Amino acid sequence: MKHYIFRNTTLEPLFKSQDAEFSGYDDISDINTDADIFSWFYLLPYQHDMDVLVKQIEFYYQNIEMVYNRIPETKFFCIFTLHNPFGAPIKTGDFSLRNTIQNFNQNIIKFSDSRSNVKVIDISDFVSNNKTVDFIDWKYYFISQMMINPRLAKNFKGWFESQINAIISKRKKCLVLDLDNTLWGGILGEDGITGIKIGGDYPGNCFAEFHKSIIELKNSGIILTICSKNNKSDVLEAWDKNPNIIIQKSDISSYRINWNNKAQNIREIAEELNIGLDSMVFIDDNPTERELVKQVLPEVTTPDFPAHPYEFPNFIEKLVRDYFQTYNVTEEDLNKTKQYKSNSERSAFKKSFDDFDQYLRSLEIDILIQAASEFSISRIAQMTQKTNQFNLTTYRYSEGDIKKFVQDGYWVFTMAVKDKFGDNGITGLIIIELDESNKTANIDSLLLSCRILGKSIEVAFVSYILNKLKAHGIKEVNAKYLATAKNSQVKDFYEKIGLHHASEVKTDSSEKKYSLQLEDFGYKEDDIYNIKEE
Amino acid sequence: MEKKVLSIIKDTFELEEVQVDISQNNCIKWDSLNHLNLILEIEAEFDVSFDPEEIGDIKSASDILSLLKKRNIN
How far apart are CA A163 and CA A475, in angstroms? Predict the structure, then answer.
């Protein structure tokens, strides 16, 4: 593919052994219309007079418009953003250069928005990925007008290729995923449905995040398939029963879960989906399987798999960069910011609602209350260990303790909360000791994760449980607050929901005991929250 | 070292073969751009940094060899 590049500095070493032709410096008079793809790749000139520089940049933009008119509409015109590699302005309060560069970049984005063959390439993405090498090597600037350090040439080449591939949409179509030690830690056939590591603490959290990144790829149009040596019935059962597995059967377009050789399985998947082997990327932790696929199906891309689950974020980023990037400013931006988005959107929402209930309603909060199960026990123990602030008694328990509670007939309920911006998972816990003969109950532990506070969810949760106790025939509930260095925010929580002091409060108020006659208790569920029990 | 330098010249200029007496005078591929590419390769390979004056003075393979020798690279 032949490139024609408009430039204002020496770029040749960056495009070594690529089919590229260059304009003269700052020269837009000539253009080779035989090229397949055109780029405007100007770098900020080394110019000390800020007024001149500002005018220069504005002039670039006008030139871009002129150049564009001479490029055939059927060919891509890629415009590089400008970035300022120079430090130390003399006047730190003078933002004219910064604003001019920002304007330039916004203008080219606008320019590309309304022209389908114009694409923007953001040089600052390259800069931020190559911070360890100086962007400019002044020796080469002064001897050969190179504005980019030639030592960055190799990295630049790879980066530029991925940018171009995204533009001409040379992305792969399909991920072929292994299961054991790839999508979860451990071996399903040996460790069992609850023994595999997915969700919770390390390394399960890495696998959970890995799932989420893969789901994002799926949402951007990548087909997910599975090729795994396992008993199919085991995997189907795991999908069915282990709620921590994020990539669901319904996310998978095709799977081969059997003991056949993987090259054969992958070939079958390609035929079934009617896609080329060269559009597939095979992810497997087992080097033997990878080697087999590399040798038998060299068209399939088979990247190395990270040695440690904590390396997954880098691994997936590289996968995306190398194989799955696509050019679409809005979608790309959406994906980039998704993690931060939920919380900032929530608070932006909050501002626009005068009425707090209305705000809460608009969040579409779903509260799911569940009795402890083998899938949640480790999370429950973990919560008792880690929750400090919203924790009424701060009793720390092991998984064994929790199992014992369940066996002894305690009520152990978790609360999972989600809203329109995302799923927070299990974030609340209550442990209640029941005395069926005296029809009393004692709240042993009550705790919530701080990230869901501020929406009165805690009141709804406890009230729901109190109603449930009442319906169960319990007459009296006892509870206490034990002060710690960190849980003062809940010192009046029980008062707030209507419990009464059962005895004198100790003078230092390190412990407060409460009791409540349930016949006095009437909490009406309202429609702010959608509370469900499973 | 001499072998390595010659092979870098050969690869950078994309030559079929290279003689030890190669210079800007007898090799049309040795233009200013390839000169730059060659210096970059040599600097990277031997982990040296030439001064701009030295880069300007380099006209031949033997110039490169003597500069490297000056830096105790053999």
Answer: 68
**Contact (CB<8Å) B52/A16:** no
The CATH code for residues B2-70 is: 1.10.1200.10
pLDDT score at A295: 87
Instruction: Flag if B52 and A150 touch (Cβ within 8 Å).
Output: no
Question: Which one-letter DSSP state was computed for residue A145?
Answer: -
A427, pLDDT greater than 70: yes
**pLDDT of A248-296, one tens digit each?**
998 898 899 988 889 989 999 988 888 889 889 999 999 888 988 988 8
User: Given this model, what pLDDT does residue B73 score?
Assistant: 85
In chain A, how many domains are there? 3
Residue range(s) defining the domain that contains residue A56: 3-167
Closest by CA position to A279, among listed A270, A291, A289: A270
Contacts of A144 in chain B (CB under 8 A): 32, 36
> Model pTM?
0.53
Residues A249 and A369 occupy one common structural domain: no
CA distance A441 to A432: 7
Contact across the interface for A16 and B37, Cβ inside 8 Å: yes
Contact: B55, A143; criterion CB under 8 Å: yes
Across the beta sheet with A511-517, the strand order is A500-501, A511-517, A476-482, A440-448, A422-435, A411-419, A365-371, A529-533
| pLDDT value of position A371 | 95
Question: Does residue A390 sit in the same domain as residue A491?
Answer: yes
**Could B36 and A142 be called an inter-chain contact, meaning their C-beta atoms sit closer than 8 Å?**
no
Domain boundaries, chain B: 2-70
Indicate which of A11, A22, A139, A151 best probes the interface with B, i.e. most B CBs within 10 Å of its own CB.
A139
A142 to chain B: which residues are within 8 Å by CB?
A: 52
